[in-house]
Amino acid sequence: MRESAALAKEQGFAASGIDALARSAGLTSGAFYKHFEGKEALLAAICEAELQSTQERFSSIEPQSEEQVLRAVDAYLSLVHVRSPGAGCVLPALAAEMGRAPAATRAVVERAFEELVAVIAEKVGDRALGSALVTQCVGAVSVARALSTETAQREVLAHARVAVRRLLKA
């Protein structure tokens, strides 16, 4: 499923056909339908698995370790992440498509997102702050990807890093 997730994050889920998604996972289209009821079921599975993976990466941070949180944030708010959607977080890559998905898919995304926020909240000691950090970072990467120049991308990422530091000091 990682290969399908990477393809969807790079090209967009809606723009990726079943054949391409199945082929990227080493399946035929027929075999795909033995694993998933349809394309939306794959989107739900991708989102759940990708958010679980992000959650696991943040789980290793020690609670109340501002230094470790900032290292993770700085890695997230990087040009490498902006330029590599296939290897990056699913949220900036597919959030708009998730928002247009059926309610059942959005429920899976919501549950996985809430679990991610809970992990971050544990690390920073506050649920609202954890949610704000996640959404600040996702938004910054999304906007940076939409910009045409590296200068503008760097500026958005730098401003987001400053904002995160201010949030953590508040």
TrEMBL record:
Gene3D superfamilies: Homeodomain-like, Tetracycline Repressor, domain 2. This is Transcriptional regulator, TetR family protein. Keywords: DNA-binding, Transcription, Transcription regulation. It comes from the Bacteria. Residues 17-36 bind DNA. One of its GO terms (molecular function) is DNA binding. It holds the Pfam family TetR_N. InterPro entries: Homeodomain-like_sf, HTH_TetR, Tet_transcr_reg_TetR-rel_C_sf. SUPFAM superfamilies: Homeodomain-like, Tetracyclin repressor-like, C-terminal domain. PROSITE patterns: HTH_TETR_2. Residues 1-54 form the HTH tetR-type domain.
